[in-house]
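Standup notes, structure subgroup. Blocker cleared on the NAP input:
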Amino acid sequence: MKGESMVERERFRPERCVMVIFGASGDLTQRKLAPALYNLAREGLLPDRTVLLGYGRTEMTDAAFRRRLRESVSRFSRTQPIVEGAWEALAGRIFYQQGAYDEAEGYRRLQRRLRQLDRKFDTGGNRVFYLAIPPSVVVPILDNLSAAHSLDRRPRCDEEGACYLRAVFEKPFGHDLDSARRLDNEIERLLAESQVFRMDHYLGKETVQNISVLRFANSIFENVWSAQCVRYIRVTVAEMLGMEGRGSYFDPVGILRDILQNHVLQLLTLVTMEPPASLAPDAIRDEKVKVLRCLRRLEGDEVRRSAVRGQYGRGMLDGREVPAYREEEGVAHDSNTETFVGLRTYIDNWRWAGVPIYLCAGKRLAATLTEVAVEFKEVPGILFGAMEGVELKPNRLKLRIQPDEGVSLRFASKVPGLGLELKNVEMDFPYGSAFPAASPEAYERLLLDVIAGNSALFARRDEVELAWEFATSILEAWEQQPAPDFPNYAPGTWGPIPPERFFSPEAVYSDVLSPRADL
Ligand SMILES: NC(=O)c1ccc[n+]([C@@H]2O[C@H](COP(=O)([O-])OP(=O)(O)OC[C@H]3O[C@@H](n4cnc5c(N)ncnc54)[C@H](OP(=O)(O)O)[C@@H]3O)[C@@H](O)[C@H]2O)c1
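Run returned:
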């Protein structure tokens, strides 16, 4: 007999639709969406009657749009070379509609085109509106779609049976708590929460989905997964890259908004949530929301004591000189924007009471890696723990999200020989060699889930707002007191906190942030 969880998953089947991508001339469409749709089609996972309609201000014919997407697929697809048959089949269902975002006429033409495509391809009236445009254009698009009767909480279909209408919203979802709430209110006016898919592409990564599998498909972790055995949890998203031409996007945003508020907190909730009742989207999201409710807010003076911000200066990285953040294209020369954040907080619930939670994100750091480290408590100072000259390190489980995906566990072992020498060793599960088949890209998983109506890997309204609540109190404290010493770390380091006090596995964590609390 199938468990409730299996039944839940099988409820979600990809269904034919017209997917309208607003901003289809842009970077996201070229880099991520087109390659993902092509790979889904190539693997036979995209329903045959799925149609793609690009929308934007740029003048383009259908043929020019197809050529552009083909070029994107050949540049960015994880599978090469292009399989001609798969591409041609998809290309025959790709169209483009030129129009402005703020003029009713464009939406009336869009509506007529959608009806034609429905008839021609028998798409059942199903719709996905993908908003791949800058945040400033989101509300005008929603308002105009609504005025053109293209948005509906209960979409009417041309044929018998149910049809669906879903909308996908990219990050950033808001700039702080107030703006996220305002955006949510606008959306709620027009759509039901079940129609809303807030994208956080981290959730589509294989290694992120594996966090739940590791925890709940194995029996050995649950009993040690609590304050009783865990010494600390650390989530790190580190990049060696600087702005790479995205300075004008990043400068008004900063790393706390860009990475910590969404990706880092999403990872944390998956690692610390209670086992959900089933795999149903709301069962999982309910548990994640409970963690965010219990996540201790840092406010006022506590921000000074428990959070560190940094901005990189000029320096050497990988043997070449790289500019300071303030010298990057698109960045103000006196910018006060943080490119590093490291903080300590707690989850005030029964499972995690008293366990320090370290969250860290930064650019131009010493390595590019995303990982979760769960360090367990030390053995008591008896037996091996009491031996002279033996340096036993605590057990530590590392979930390597990217790159070098895998899981490793550190434990102590006897060094072979007649003496009694101990050494810390690492047991490693490398994803790549254990499963030789290439992993799908996050956007493939997520696009498929959108057309299947499965929102488990998308953030719910309360989840996003609680995450913003956490981030906003820190941002407010920082705004009141601009950082006096930016830039304060050199490229290729681990930020303004000396590595032995924050990143290194050997770190003493109890006072990790306080010595630099006056930044
Ligand atoms: N690029 C990525 O890898 C990536 C990753 C994660 C999230 N995102 C998010 O996805 C969304 C789209 O990203 P993107 O990189 O594709 O953006 P983009 O290239 O800057 O813009 C997409 C399209 O939107 C239209 N547009 C741009 N600026 C506009 C403005 N001020 N007013 C009206 N229309 C404008 C343009 O199309 P027309 O001129 O033809 O109308 C443009 O081609 C953004 O919210 C971004 O934060 C992007």
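Discussed briefly. The longest strand covers residues 230-238.
Next: hand off to the docking folks.
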